[in-house]
Design a protein that fits this description.
The protein is mainly α. It has a domain of 137 residues: ABC transporter transmembrane region fold, CATH 1.20.1560.10. It is 85% helix and 0% strand. The longest helix is centred in the middle third of the chain and has 50 residues.
Length: 196
């Protein structure tokens, strides 16, 4: 279903995906730019006792440039994704209404108008909901790949620890969340006995 909806607006969906990719790259570039700023402008100032204005201005411009790219990517992704969703909703709603108009009048007399309009609205919104998170999810996936690669390139030992530790923490937190069966069964057994 999502593939058919993407085919209705492929260009704007591609723009949303591209903007999500730019956001992922800019997020990783932001950490690189911050490291460069500290290495080239901040540390030499502390070591020499003299500010390096050229390096400070260059670091400032680099950080602002990366921030602007990241902001533009967010706006581009959200705008494009919203356009895709609205356009697909309009097309699907038009198809449903065209189908309703093709039905015989006897069929319309058996079904309340309010219910038909509710289906034309609610069914379309529900169908298009699957499309909403796709650009962001694609960007997050790319962000995970890029940050993992950056971590491996920076410190292989730390990356090994992180690649083992983070999934373990996620699994443990999933197991001990308030909605888990262990906690729920304790709650359903009634109030805890008072200690007197």
């Amino acid at each position: 279903m999502a593939r058919a909806q993407v085919r209705m607006e492929p260009r704007f969906f591609a723009v949303a995906i591209a903007c999500a990719a730019v956001y992922a790259v800019a997020t990783v570039a932001q950490s690189w730019a911050l490291g460069r700023a500290v290495d080239r402008a901040v540390l030499p100032t502390f070591l020499d006792g003299r500010p390096r204005w050229g390096a400070a201005v260059a670091a400032f411009l680099l950080l602002v440039g990366v921030g602007l790219a990241k902001s533009a990517a967010i706006v581009g992704r959200r705008t494009s994704a919203t356009y895709v969703r609205s356009s697909v909703e309009a097309r699907l709603r038009r198809r449903i209404l065209d189908h309703y108009q093709a039905l015989p009048m006897a069929w319309h007399r058996r079904h309340p108008t309010g219910r038909l309009l509710a289906h034309a609205e609610a069914d379309v919104v529900s169908a298009v909901e699957v499309l909403n998170p796709l650009p962001l999810a694609t960007g997050v996936g790319l962000l995970l790949v890029l940050t993992t690669g950056w971590l491996v390139a920076t410190d292989p030992v730390l990356s090994l620890v992180a690649l083992v530790l983070f999934p373990t923490v996620i699994l443990l937190s999933q197991h001990r969340t308030p909605g888990s069966s262990t906690t729920s069964s304790r709650r359903s057994s009634g109030p805890a006995p008072s200690r007197r």
